[in-house]
Amino acid sequence: MWTLLKKILVTLLTLEARGVVKKYHPHIVAVTGSVGKTSTKDAIYAVLAASTYVRRSEKSFNSEVGLPLTILGVPNAWQNPLRWAQNLLDGLFLLLLKARYPRWLVLEVGADRPGDVKRVAKWLPVDVVVITRLPEVPVHVEYFDSPREVVEEKASLISSLKQGGTLVLYGDDEKVAVLRARAQGKSVITFGLSKNAEVRAEAVAVHLGEDGEPLGMQGRVVCGEESAPFIVRGAVGTHALQPFLAAAAVGKALGHGLEEVVKALGAYEPPQGRMRLVLGLKETLIIDDTYNSSPAAVEAALETLKHLPVKGRRVAVLGDMLELGRHSVEEHRKAGALAAKTGDLLFTVGFRARDMAQGALDAGMLDANIFQYEDARRAGKELEVMLKRGDVVLVKGSQSARMERAVEEIMAEPERAAELLVRQDPEWKRR
What we know:
Blueprint: H1 2-24, E1 27-32, H2 37-49, E2 54-56, H3 66-72, H4 81-96, E3 104-108, H5 116-121, E4 126-131, H6 147-155, E5 161-170, H7 176-181, E6 187-192, E7 199-208, E8 214-223, E9 226-233, H8 242-253, H9 258-264, E10 276-280, E11 284-289, H10 295-307, E12 314-319, H11 328-342, E13 345-349, H12 354-362, E14 370-373, H13 376-386, E15 392-396, H14 404-410, H15 417-420, H16 426-429
């Protein structure tokens, strides 16, 4: 019954959203890809919000429900039918009455199943399409015939570009040439860390505090003859720079100067659960990457942990990676092997993550340094006992692994969990 009601609801919300787009003609930036969509959306919002009225997708509203909710400017009603009815009424008022509507929308477009992006591309007129990194084994691949089909699904958003629109691509991706060719004469600008990227970061380093503690990332952003120094505070890892660079590329595509863009990005704060730095108990530091997980993201996070200046031990707390289908066992074992070369201790959470433990053992990590759990909160409680001053702890896993519960057990200020961690609203807390 709920499935039928959901289909009806999605149909009605989408019809209203389409009508609102036709009536108010907002400029639209649409972000898709497999890594860093939400962070990229938030960074682009920071650039646009400095000079115009703009709305962005809340949190990770990128589904068949989340996208129309953002366009209509109404909240997720979860399981409350009265609130859904109110949302539909609010959408109807937008169509029937004249309201103040944003000049720009920054929308995140996800692909959980085949056809998700293609359906959106058919009706959403987009000024700027941003495609973030598309790794070899992307998240959600379980529901597609192959990783190539995932890439094809994401790339279908390019067809939504208006005449005169711009395609913004992750320039360090080997697929960039193929994606560029699909732009069919429209403007293309690339971002990344390699010299091939038109908007790129140079002289990248960890931004350290007075006591040598990591505070974020720093470097210079370069585009043509322009360059400007930058600091991204509160998150670490070179992949934490990709949203910053993507937003800078969007700013340049829209005619903003580089210094102006970097100044606007001073308001950008990396979202919760995306390589965010959180103070831990016993003078430790937590790298909170608990929003979601995929093989590419785990690899990037572990590489960051490996190269971060550490006074104590490097500890990896890794939960299940979901929706990998037949790639699951192999990718979990690869992650475990990399963790063995990266850290001193490995905590795994979940049934699938047992393969991480096996991969770490096969790569030479001592059995005494590997701890396996089924529950994230219990893993956090037991890690709390073992923590030592100066340890740096990376916590990561797919959404349903609920790895933020492990972070809550070892963070220095658990009373700030609602502010610092993901999935803290009442609906999530009840699950």
